[in-house]
Amino acid sequence: MNITASILYNYTQCPHRVWRDIYGPQEEKIQEPNPFVQLLWDKGVQFEQEVISKTGEFIDLSKGELSDRNLRTMEAMKDGKELIYQGVIKHAQFLGIPDFLKRLEDEKYMPVEIKAGKAYQNGSEEEENKPKKHYAVQLCLYVEILKSLGFAKENIGAIIDIEMNETPYMLDRMMGPRAHKTWWEYYEEVKAEAIALVANDKQNYPANSAVCKLCPWSVSCKKWCNESEDLTNLFYLGRNTRDIIRADLDILTTKDLCGLDIGRAMELKKQNKTILKGIGEGLLRKLIARANVVVNTKKPVLYEKLDLPKVPIELFFDIESDPTQDLVYLHGVYERRADEEKFIYFLAKDNSGQSEKDAWQRFWDYIRTLGEGDYAIYYYSPYEKTTYKKMSKKYFDVISEDEVAQFFASSNAIDLYRIVQAKTDWPLSSYSIKDIATYLGFKWRDENPSGALSIQWYNEYIASKDENILKRIIEYNEDDCKAMVILKDKLVEYSELMEYE
Ligand code: SF4
Question: Could you identify the atom of ligand 1 that is nearest to the CA of residue 217?
Fold first, then answer.
């Protein structure tokens, strides 16, 4: 079987996917394409066409049998053609179809990929933006094939991004300021793993993780995780930690973890510094407590009393955004006062920057009508805060960066997810607002609520202006806000109960 860019991409998303695609129980694989994945695909194709239509002369090798396209690609490169679209390159078991092969001054070629997204991923607060792993490995694969064929010397490629800018990818550079390897070394590792998995020389396990939601194996892998009582059924215990605990302590299930002797584990770690890498006593204690909630008590726990603001107005707020367009299209607020509750929303009625800005302006106009200190604002996860920070840079005439920072720094701005993460445990594998509120008995009006689907609906609404679709988007957002009300009230209830224990 050929090693292709899509195999390497799958590996970067989930190391198990490569093996499961070939050797997994095919009857358990979901056949219908995920609508959000389909949306991303369609947008990618549409954007590629747009780029192509604005590109000057090129040789189009996008049609025909792969073997024939491969022959014609080789001829085109031997003839020194400037730009080749969708050529097929192959060497040994490696196969690539770069969007463009661009001739360089030294007669060699460089792969260029068209991506309907940003060329680099946003860095953390301290780190700069950096190349995306899946783009880098894809370009490395193409460069390696070109080098084997004698058509490349340097480890470089490029991405044409959503702004239609060409951004170089220097693949011999370190992956980041604190990284210990270059992009090329990372690629070599990914490639070696993918080859072993494809050949079935190596097997690995599924893991319960966020990426599973968009994967056709989601049901199948979840079933495996449940039946195996896998450690990744515990919130925040990911694949790497699971693999280390399995290998170093021979703990395979959540039940086993409940009985772990921490003293013995720490003694082993002291004797052999290579085991339990990155896992300390504190984390083990936390995971054992969590395992006990999932396996034994099966009841939520609040570990610390809460001191939430007592104010006349509570706002529960949630935003909807479309990362494929870098657009925030909805700001929803569920406003609760002693005598009144209502949902207010601020919508970008089209996907233009002006419409996004207007909605953002209206949100802040609303906030400014409330007396400072009279209200508390609740949200779930740091996403709202980081998105608003970015928006304040984009629309600095609406509100300054400092004002947004102050708004979130206030003791009346509360990220409920932080409380959930630090001070509670639930008999659930995910602590998303959907899972927790559903556990608490809340029901979304939509049969199939998800942020990814909301993006799909918004795109459909933009195309059709169908008010029913808009209603669905707004109701979904309102229910997300109401779910936070349920959670907040339950946390307060648990906190008050602690006083009497
Ligand atoms: S469902 Fe999850 S674990 Fe399974 S292959 Fe997909 S991403 Fe990997």
Answer: 1
* d(C-alpha 364, C-alpha 415), whole Å: 19
Q: Which atom of ligand 1 has the smallest separation from the CA of 224?
A: 4
- Measure the CA–CA gap between 382 and 407, rounded to whole angstroms: 13
- Which residue's CA is the closest to the ligand 1 atom numbered 7? 212
> 206: CA distance to ligand 1 center in Å?
6
Q: For position 118, what pLDDT does the model report? A: 86
β-pairing verdict for 301-302 and 166-170 = unpaired
**What distance lies between CA 109 and its chain's CA centroid?**
33
List the Cα angle 483/486/492 in 5-degree steps.
140
**Residue that wins the pLDDT comparison between 235 and 36:** 235
What residue owns the CA closest to ligand 1's atom 2?
A: 212
Task: Tell whether pTM > 0.85.
Answer: yes
Q: Could you tell me which of 172, 177, 80 has the C-alpha nearest to residue 123?
A: 177
d(CA 416, CA 341): 20
Q: Which regions of the chain carry the CATH code 3.30.420?
A: 313-499
Give CATH 1.10.150 domain extents, the chain. Answer: 228-298
Q: Does the beta carbon of 316 lie inside 6 Å of ligand 1?
A: no
- Residue-wise pLDDT tens digits, 82-138: 999 999 999 999 999 999 999 998 889 999 999 998 889 875 555 567 899 999 999
Instruction: Please name the CATH architecture into which domain 313-499 falls.
Output: 2-Layer Sandwich (3.30)
Q: pLDDT (tens digit, 9 = 90+) per residue, 325-359?
A: 889 999 999 999 999 999 999 999 999 999 999 99
- Measuring CA to CA, how many Å separate 492 from each of 304, 342, 437, 479? 11, 21, 14, 20
Using a CB cutoff of 8 Å and minimum separation of 24, what contacts does 458-464 make?
A: 458/320, 458/322, 458/329, 458/330, 458/351, 459/39, 459/322, 462/350, 462/351
Phi, psi of 134 (to 5 degrees): -70, -30
Find the helix or strand (DSSP H, E) in which 358 lies: helix 353-368
Give the Cβ contact number of residue 313 at 10 Å: 16
Q: What's the rounded Cα separation, in Å, for the pair 53 and 60?
A: 12
Topology adopted by domain 228-298 = DNA polymerase; domain 1 (1.10.150)
- Our mutation pick for probing the ligand 1 site, out of 23, 214, 217, counting the most ligand atoms within 8 A of Cβ, is 217
212 lines ligand 1 (CB under 6 A): yes
Phi-psi region of 61 (alpha: psi -120 to 50; beta: other; left: phi over 0): alpha
b (16+ CB within 10 A) / e for 422-442: ebbbbbbbbbbbbebbbbeeb
What is the predicted pLDDT for the residue at 123?
56
Between strands 313-322 and 156-160, the pairing is unpaired
Protein residue with its CA nearest to atom 5 in ligand 1: 17
